[in-house]
Amino acid sequence: GGLPDGIVDAGTLATNSVDSDHYVDGSIDNAHLADDAVDSDELAAGAIDAAHLASGVGGALVKISEEIMSNTATVTFDSSDITSTYKTYLFVFDSVVPATDSAQILAQCSTDDGSSYVTSSMSRVVWAEQDDDSAITLTESDEGASEIAIALWGVGSNNGENMNGTAYMFGSQDTGVYTMFQVRNVHYGQHKQTTQEILTNGTQELAVINNVKFYCSAGNFEDRTITLYGMT
Questions:
Q1: pLDDT tens for residues 49-97?
Q2: If DSSP states are collapsed to H, E and C, what string results for the chain?
Q3: Nearest to 196 by CA among 98, 128, 104
Q4: List of residues 6+ apart from 210 with CB closer than 8 A
Q5: Tens digit of pLDDT for each residue in 118-148?
Q6: Which end of the chain is more exposed for a tag (fewer CB within 10 A), N or C?
Q7: Contact 117/107 with Cβ under 8 angstroms?
């Protein structure tokens, strides 16, 4: 008839005598766990990753690549970084400084991993506001743009001046839609004016984008970083 209920407990079992090999799949579920029985102390580092989560659970940013600039002409994220793994990508600009005062920060995208870049049939809308003792509002639209605008209202290069911001890239892996960039930045202009810009850029490419290159309208990037994340 077997053993009475409760006759076998932790005191009658040798240490490590019962491990995962002795459990039937699904035998331990929420009903068998005390409240808060499993927390970070019970999990090995890296034990829970995307492969252990149901579809749509635990959406997050995944760091893909960080490019550190030092008198760099261009910063490029290629097909090893931009793949079909993610639908949406995020570029983060951390205290970017152009070597040339009042330079614009621009970008181009490619469908052939940089063998050529899209330089026509793009559109963009820009809104900017700058404080130089009087409010200045700049609005611009360009249906024939040849590049992607990241910061159009010149970024300063003097001591302390820099540009910070984000650029979301949507639809780059979907051949049924145009790729679009949504950009938001804050920076100091050439005369230490605080400036903010909101920029929307659109391509008319029905092809996978697998390479994005950033550059200055004049001169190089002086220093700091651009980091690429994938969004799950």
A1: 656 655 555 568 999 999 999 999 999 999 999 999 999 999 999 999 9
A2: CCCCCCCCCHHHCCCCCCCHHHCCCCCCCHHHCCCCCCCHHHCCCCCCCHHHCCCCCCCCEEEEEEEEEEEECEEEECCCCCCCCCCEEEEEEEEEEECCCCEEEEEEEECCCCCCCCCCCEEEEEEEEEECCCEEEEEEEEEEECCEEEEEEEECCCCCCCEEEEEEEECCCCCCCCCEEEEEEEEECCCCCEEEEEEEEECCCCCCCCEEEEEECCCCEEEEEEEEEEEC
A3: 128
A4: 78, 79, 82, 83, 110, 111, 112, 113, 172
A5: 999 899 999 988 876 556 667 788 888 999 9
A6: N
A7: no
Quote the CA–CA distance of 86 and 89 in Å, as a whole number. 7
- Cβ proximity of 111 and 205 under 8 Å: yes
pTM of the model: 0.75
Residue 77, both tokens = 């994220």
What does the alpha-carbon distance between residue 154 and residue 142 come to, in Å, rounded to a whole number? 18
CA distance 192 to 179: 34
Rounded to whole angstroms, the Cα distance separating 202 from 124 reads 6
User: Residue 68 corresponds to which tokens in the numbers above?
Assistant: 């550190």
Sheet containing 194-202, strands listed edge to edge, beginning at the edge strand earlier in sequence:
61-72, 221-231, 88-98, 163-170, 180-188, 194-202, 122-131, 135-145
Cβ of 48: how many Cβ atoms within 10 Å? 12
- Rounded Cα distance between 49 and 16, Å, is 26
